[in-house]
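Bench log, entry 3. Co-assembly request; chain sequences pasted below exactly as received.
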Amino acid sequence: MAEGLSFAHLRIDRHGAPMLSLDARVAPGEVLTVMGPSGSGKSTLLSAIIGTLAPGFTLSGQITLDGTEITLLPPERRRVGILFQDELLFPHLSVGGNLGFGLPPRLRGKARRARIDAALRDIGLEGFAARDPATLSGGQKARVALMRMLLAEPRALLLDEPFSRLDAARRDQIRSLVFERARAQGLPVLLVTHDPEDAEAAGGRVITLG
Amino acid sequence: MALSLTRAAPALTLLALLGPVAAGLAGTLAPALGLMPALGGTGLSLDPFRELFDWPGLPRAVILSLFTGLAATLISLTLTLLICAGWQGTQAFAALERVLSPLLSVPHAAAAFGLAFLIAPSGWVARLIALPLGWERPPDLLILQDPFGLSLIAGLVVKEMPFLLLMSLAALPALRPAQSVATAQALGYGRVTAWAKVLLPRLYAQIRLPVYAVLAFSISVVDVAMILGPGTPPPLAVQVLKWMNDPDLALRFRASAGALMLLALTVGALLLWRGGEIATARLSARWLVAGGRGHGERVLRGLGLGLGALSAAAVLLGLVGLAVWSFAGLWRFPELLPQGWTLRSWMRHGPELLALFGRTLLIAAAVSGIAMALTTACLEAEQRHGLRPGARALWLLYLPLLVPQIAFLPGLQIAALLTGLDGTLGAVIAVHVVFVLPYAFLSLSDPYRALDPRFAAVSHALGRGPGATFWRLRLPMLLRPWLAAAAVSAAVSVGQYLPTLLIGGGRVPTLTTEALALASGGDRRVIGVTALAQTAAAFLPFGLALLIPALAWRNRRGMRHG
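Structure output for the full assembly:
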C-alpha cells in the first residue's frame, strides 16, 4: 500500500458549488506546498483533512494516510498533526502541561515527566516545564507548539501559514527546524502559504489553487 | 452515551423552559373559564371574567400597570442609550460600568427597600432638607406608594437600566463602535448624534428582546410593586396575587381571569411598543441622512452621566441606608444618623436569618447547577454537532421572560397541588430553573462561541476526543465566564419572589419571601437586616466567581482576561 498522504478525486463543494478539487500524493518526508489567494479554499482543504469541515461544505473522494482511508474517521483518530499561524498554546496549562497534553497516555509518572523534559531540552527550552506559556517569546512558543504536535506521534503534518507571524530572523530558524524534524520522522507535509519564500524553503512541489 | 446526551440537550432544555410555561398557562386558563372541579367549577362559564369586570378597582389597576410598565421601560431605555451615546469608550463610562455591573445582582426587593428608605417622608432625602429648614416632623406627603406609581417607576428604572446597559455593552463590540463613531465624527457629527445615527439603529436590533423582557417584567412586577407601588388599588399583578392568597378560595376564579387579563395587557403593550418602534424608524429614516450634525450635545451628555450616576447612587445609598437601619438604635427625625448603634436587630433575627440564608443559597446552588448543566450541554452540542439555534429559538429562550410570571404561575401552582409537589424544595427549584435558564444561556453563549475553534482542532489533531477536549480544554479555559454565568444564575434565583411563594406554598420560605412579608409591617430595622442578608446571598456567588479563577490562574497571564 502507498505510504504517505494521498488524495484521490478529492472534491469540496460549498453549498453545492464546486470549491476545489485535488488529486495528489505526498510521500513520507516530502513537502507539498499549496498556494493561492485568500478565499481559494486553502484553509478549507486543511479542515477537510483534519476532519473539522464546517457545515455547508461537502466532501467527496478519499483521503488516505499510510494506506488507511481516514476520510470518515473522527478528527482525533486521524493522526494528522497541524500547526496554525498562531501557536495556540493552551493558556491554562504550563509549558510542560501543554507538551503533556500531546503525549499519548501510555507513558506514565516519572517516565512521562522525563519524556517532557527531554523534549524541552531538544528544543533548547530546558527547565521551562513549569513556565506560563504567556511569558514565552514568539520563537519559543512556536517551538513548544511544534514539539507538542510531534509528541502526539502524528503520521502526517499540516502547516497553515505557521511562519507568517514570526519576524524575519526567527522565521528562517523555525522553518528549517520544522522541515528538518518532519523529514527526520518521515512525515508527509502539506504546507499552505501565500509566501513564495516558504514554498522555496520547502523545496517540494507547488500546487496553486483558485 | 455522552454523545447522545449532548444531542438531546437542546430538546431537553426547551422542554424545561416551555413545558412549565405551557402547563401553567393552561392551568390558568381553565379556572378563568370556570373550570376547577376541586372548587366546584365544572362547567364552562364567563363568570370569572364577569366578576373581574365588576371589581371597581379594575380600570385604575389596569391603567397603573400599563403606565408604570411603559414609563419605566421608556425611561430605562432612554437613559441607557444616552449614557452609551455620550460616554461609551471614555473613562467615565468605564467607571459607571464598574459601578453598575454589581448593581445588577442586587435583588429587586432589596433595591426597592433601599430606595424606599431614601425617598420616604422620613428618609435621608427628607432629612437633608428638613435639617436646614428646621422641620421637626416628616412632611405629610405620600411619596412612597404614591397613587401615580412614580416611586414604583423609579424603583424599576434603577434596576432595569443597568440590565439594558449591560445587554448593550455585550452587543456593542460586534458593531465596532469606535470606528463607526470616529468615521461619523470625522464627517463633522457631534458625538451623541454620531452614535445615534450610525450605531443606535443597529444596536437596537440587538437589544430588542431584552427591552421587551423589561417591558413585560415592569408591567407584571409584584415584589417591587408591593414595596413601592400604590395600595388601593394596586397594579393588577399585585391584586391578582391578593386574590390568589385570599382564604376565600372562590376568589381563585377571579384571580385566574385577572392573570389572563394581565397577559393580554402585556401582549397589548408589546404590540404598542412594536408600533412605536416602526413609527420611530419611519420618522427617523429621513433624519438619519438629512445631514444634521447635532446640537445640544453637551446637555445630552451631562444629562446621561448625571442621571446614570443618580440611578447608581440611589441603589448604593439605599443599601447603605438598609445597613444603617439594621444597626440603628434610637433614630429621631430629622437627625441624619442614629443617636446610638446596636447589634440588637442582628442578634434577635440572626439565627432565623441564618436558616433562611442557608435555604436560599441551597436553592440557588441547585438551580444554578441545573441551569448551567443544561446550558453547557446545549452549547457543547452546538460545537460538536452544529446544532445552532436560530433566531426563533432565541424567542423561545426569552419566552419565560416575556410571559408575565403571574399569568402562568397560578396554573402551575394548581398543577403542583394536583401532583402533591407543592411546597417541596424540589418543586421550587424546578420552577426557578425556568426563569434562570434564559439568563444562564445569555451569559454563557457569547464567551462559549467566542473561543477560538482552532484550540479544539489542535486538541483533536493531538489525538484527544470531544470528551477530553471539553473537560480539559474548553471548560478550564472558560472557567471565568462559566462561573460568572453560574453566579448570575444564582443571583436570579435568590431574587425570585412569586415562584417561591406560589409553588412553595409558603412552606419554603427564603430571604426574599421573608423580606416581602415584612413590607407591610414597616419595621425598618428588621427590613434592613433581612434585605441586607438577601443582598449578601446574591453577592456571595459573584465573590466566588471572582475569587476562584483569580486563585486557579494566578500563574497564568493568558487567562487573566478570559
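The radius of gyration of chain A is 17 Å. Strands of chain A lie at 5-14, 17-26, 31-35, 57-65, 68-69, 80-83, 156-160, 189-193, 205-208.
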